[in-house]
Design goal:
The protein is an alpha+beta fold. It has helices spanning 47-58, 98-112, 147-160, 165-168, 171-179, 190-207, 217-220, 227-233, 236-241; strands spanning 28-31, 62-64, 67-69, 82-87, 118-121, 134-139. The protein contains nine helices and six strands, in the order E-H-E-E-E-H-E-E-H-H-H-H-H-H-H.
Length: 257
Amino acid sequence: MIFVIRKKNINWRKQTGYLSQAVNSGIEFAFVSDDMHQCTPFVYCRDYLQDAIQGVLTNKKKTIYGFKFNPQDEHLPSVKKTQLIVCNSIDKSFHKKMANCLDFLNQIETKLKIKKTKMCLCNTPPLKYKAGGVIFISGSKRWINSPPMISFYTLLIRIGFGYNPKKHGDYKKFINGIVSNKINPYMSVDHSRLKNASAAIDRIFNNGDRCIFHKAMEDNYCDKIALSVMHNSCGIVGLSLGNCRTQMPRWYKGEDK
């Protein structure tokens, strides 16, 4: 895997406040704006990302579990493409796993006919993340087109940091190995996350994301979905378990039998 030597310059956001999160260690995520500002705090809980996108598309302040995002006061996450920064303060070799993660993602993007993700390191990361580095990720807009898709993408990124193509084979074998408990994921929580999301993941692989979700992003993050529902029920696991069926029946149209 070949990486661009040039590193990205990020305008870092000061991390303030306390977030209630079910996961409190491992990989952290934050959105990046078109002008390369970190525009959300680093979060372990991936559900805050879909909350922020709903805030952008509805132009309304979002506040939940200590997370605050006001689109009128903040740099806005890109909605032209998916732009993230990821890090892990307790893994000093985090950056060395980047190539394998990208290989894993690109295999899945080939399957789904999605423009392939690119990655590179960031310049001058915050001291907390200096050893392992912070990685800038640029992916297709399709990965943020709906809450389950950004949830799916970030889950794939997280398990991708435990992927080794020589050891694990292709993406199907790797995913099946984690679900069947034959392979330990990079973060232990993702055995259950991936297993519980399997029905929705299979639907996306079998039918394609464009056949499941609304074409317009605004329709997938619409205001009629309460923020608590957006956060707790509209991720890839929530989609799989049917938790958002009442609010978003379109996502279940033509559901696999």
